[in-house]
Amino acid sequence: MRLVILGGGGFRVPLVYRALLADAGAPGACRELVLHDTDPVRLRVMASVLAAQAAGVPGAPAVRIAQDLDDALRGADFVFSAIRVGGTAGRVCDERVPLAEGVLGQETVGAGGVLYGLRTLPVAVAIAERVKALAPDAWVINFTNPAGMVTEAMARVLGGRVIGICDSPVGLVRRAARAAGADPDSPTFRYDYVGLNHLGWLRRMSDGGPDLLPGLLADPGALDSFEEGKLFGAPWLAALGALPNEYLHYYYFEREALAAVRSAEATRGEFLDRQQGAFFASAAAAADRPADAYTLWDRTRLEREETYMAENRAATGGWQRDPHDLDGGGYDRVALALMRAIARDERTTLILNVPNGTTVPALDAEAIIEVPCEVGAFGARPLPVAAPTEHQAGLMLTLKAVERSAIEAAASGSRAAALRALALHPLVDSVTVAGRILDAALPR
Q1: What are the C-alpha distances in Å from 135 to residues 70, 80, 128, 131, 138?
Q2: CA dihedral in degrees (349, 350, 354, 358; nearest 10)?
């Protein structure tokens, strides 16, 4: 099996390779990993880090650096898209422009997410077109944010052969199961989750018996034992009757989240821009010493994980992340499980971003939703879920209108569609503000 990573110089590529190494030697395992990126320095650094990881591992996938996109895609079985158009500097712009107008600036949520989408969608669609031309039988696994929006745009070219992934729902389900005393790896464990990417709710879970969620929601001590419980608080979770994805903190506690972001010394993008800039500069000097490059990477990775959603945690008491959530494994494990299920027809259930079909009646068949899916050689198909509540469906419909306006704007260049994407977002409180954000961001 040949896996191609677009954005192969990305900081989290070693996490994907770690998952591949754990599978090395198994029937149908990845034999070649092809990296493609627009930044040759980052590619050289990542190749060095991967060399350190592969040392002493029998059957480790060979790593090849592709000179251009077409070279990378030819012969691909799976294409993992993890690009960041504009780099971390682009993310800083996405965050700072909205914050200057007094609204949330965040990578995938609110005005920042729309700006990131507008910049990314044309590139993602161009990639989809090249995949269709050069590797029509390949499966594309999209992790490029905003993942739901980007997956939907790529699906208009590739249909069901592009599948979006995210680690947030997986982490939520596993943490909630452990807090309720259940084993998320048990063959009898079941759950109900519905939403869009970074906008979903866990509504039921059981381990061969009755629903465990009501008891968990009624237990403040158990809720305080894991991230989402601390983030949202027992009173609100009991009132809501569901466990939200962590990104819904920006919606349910908008004032507090915005205040925390504005009072921070730097935005998340600025922190990562400085951190990754320092890492790649140091690691480039050590690129001919793979062990040293890997040590630098792992130290930087741990700091990145420890500071994840730091402003949201500061707004809810300043608690520290659980050590279980600091290993960095999440989307890489989901990606490997997805590839194994398709390549070997190993049936499994994963929360993925896929076309709706008839799963959520409020949305049309082509809408990309995030729900549990059965996965096998056929790809991924959504499993039945309970109908969303009025509140859940309302937010999903509103955000779907935002996503589709952004897709229209990116495809057509329409300023009106771009304005609509910004102004319709629940976290942008004025059409006038949306227009000013658009005018400030476009020249950059």
Answers
A1: 9, 13, 10, 5, 5
A2: 40
CA angle 296, 301, 305 (to 5 degrees): 155
CA distance 125 to 352: 20
Q: Which two tokens stand for residue 249?
A: 């903190």
pLDDT of 348 higher than 90? yes
Q: Give the integer Cα–Cα distance in Å for 34 and 134.
A: 15
Residue 44 Rama label (left phi>0; alpha psi -120 to 50; beta):
alpha
What are the tokens at 233? 């608080």
Angle at which helix 390-412 crosses helix 147-158, to 10 degrees, equals 60
Checking DSSP bridges between strand 139-142 and strand 162-164, what pairing results, if any? parallel
DSSP 9-47: TSTTHHHHHHHHHHTTTSTT---EEEEE-S-HHHHHHHH
Nearest to 194 by CA among 425, 333, 359: 359
Euclidean distance between CA atoms 166 and 183, whole angstroms: 21
H or E segment and range at residue 371: strand 368-376
Q: Are residues 163 and 139 in contact, defined by beta-carbon separation less than 8 angstroms?
A: yes
Lowest mean pLDDT across 57-61, 113-117, 268-272, 318-322: 318-322
The values of phi and psi at residue 383, to 5°, are -90, 155
Q: Which two tokens stand for residue 216?
A: 């968990």
Name the token pair of 259: 């205040």
The crossing angle, in degrees rounded to 10, of helices 415-423 and 431-441 is: 130
Distance in angstroms (rounded) separating the CA atoms of residues 16 and 141: 12
pTM above 0.90, yes or no: yes
* SS3 label, residue 219: coil
Instruction: Determine what percent of the chain falls in helix, strand and coil, rounding each to the nearest 5.
Output: 55, 15, 30
Read off the tokens for 319. 């608690």
Residue 270 in tokens: 């600025």
Average per-residue pLDDT for the chain:
94
Residue 357: which of 374, 342, 369 has the closest Cα? 369
Closest-CA residue to 46 (of 7, 79, 3, 91): 7
Q: pLDDT of 221-269, one tens digit each?
A: 999 999 999 999 999 999 999 999 999 999 999 999 999 999 998 999 9
C-alpha R_g of the chain: 21
Asked if 408 and 125 touch (Cβ cutoff 8 Å), the reply is no
